[in-house]
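Handout, section B. The chain below has 95 residues.
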Amino acid sequence: MRAGELEPIEGDKLESVMVTHLARKYPVFYWRNKTEIDIVAMINRRQFGIEVKTSSGSWIKPKHLKDVLVLTRLEVPLFLEVLTSSELYCGVELN
């Protein structure tokens, strides 16, 4: 890393930031059984899973979740901006 550059946020910290922001608008949970997902949010009475991937590796989607979003480290800031703005994004309202 060069002088003046910021270190990338570690995976667990990035997940914490996501949970904190989502919890401001929605009830949030964590799922772990035979499979694991970082965040489960209740949005419009439906469970919506979010998995934050900071490195490559395999991941198995929990069978009970129909709606799952997998975000990379680079996609998290855009997702948080859309969540914060509470505006329509690609025709889907997050409120």
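Note. The chain has two helices and four strands. Compare this with the example in section A.
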